[in-house]
Amino acid sequence: MRVLVAYASSTGFTKGIAEFVGERLREHGTQVDVQGVDSVKNLAGHDAFVIGSALYNQHWLKEAKSFVSNNRALLSTRPVWLFSSGPVGTKTTDAQGRDLSDVSGPKEIDELREAVKPRDHRVFFGGLDGSRLTGAIGFAYRMARRSQAARESMPEGDFRDWKEIESWANGIAEALPTVPA
Ligand SMILES: Cc1cc2nc3c(=O)[nH]c(=O)nc-3n(C[C@H](O)[C@H](O)[C@H](O)COP(=O)(O)O)c2cc1C
């Protein structure tokens, strides 16, 4: 059994989640590769997949969307788990009282579900460090920071819930078919 944990991460928080999930799966005796979606060379050598992306403006990063759509033929024949790393802060609901895991994105979740029929999709809290944001995302961030409401709704810090991520990874390990490596 060989699992690929593939991620798209702009500032490293999602990469950290992917590496952590990979470590937990290894502890269960699974062979695991953890790679950025753009570095993946050999998909066919893997029996199951965990694919995650950071959320920006309620979307997965484009390289993660491309990875799924370019490889949907193979992915749809193997067990796949998806995760998104997004909400920041300590509140679990938005100003309207809606659960953040329902409203944070990704907007393309229906297409992703259709493409690879994932066993699960989970939204995890992520992290925010403005000093690591560059390019268009960094520009959007600096624009948004001008408003106090935005600064309050998107506080900087690391909000990843390792216990929750660990329990999700353990669930994956238990669900993986017991195929010899
Ligand atoms: C400009 C900007 C837009 C964001 N939009 C969202 C969003 O729509 N939904 C969400 O849950 N998180 C959003 N976030 C938070 C990031 O998804 C979060 O910080 C994530 O963990 C970063 O992962 P990365 O370090 O792997 O890029 C946004 C962050 C920035 C800076």
Name its key features.
single chain, about 180 residues, alpha/beta, Rossmann fold, six-stranded mixed beta sheet, two-stranded antiparallel ribbon, 8 helices, about 40% helix, binds flavin mononucleotide
Helix content: 25-40%
Estimate the mean pLDDT confidence.
94
CATH class: Alpha Beta
**What is the CA–CA distance across the termini?**
4 Å
Total number of β-strand segments?
8
Beta-strand percentage range: 15-25%
Q: In the CATH scheme, what's the topology name? A: Rossmann fold
The gyration radius over C-alpha positions equals 16 Å
Order of helix and strand elements from N to C terminus: EHEEEHHEHHEEHHEH
| Class based on secondary structure composition and strand pairing | alpha/beta
Biggest sheet statistics: 6 strands, mixed
Task: Write down the domain tally.
Answer: 1
The CATH architecture is 3-Layer(aba) Sandwich
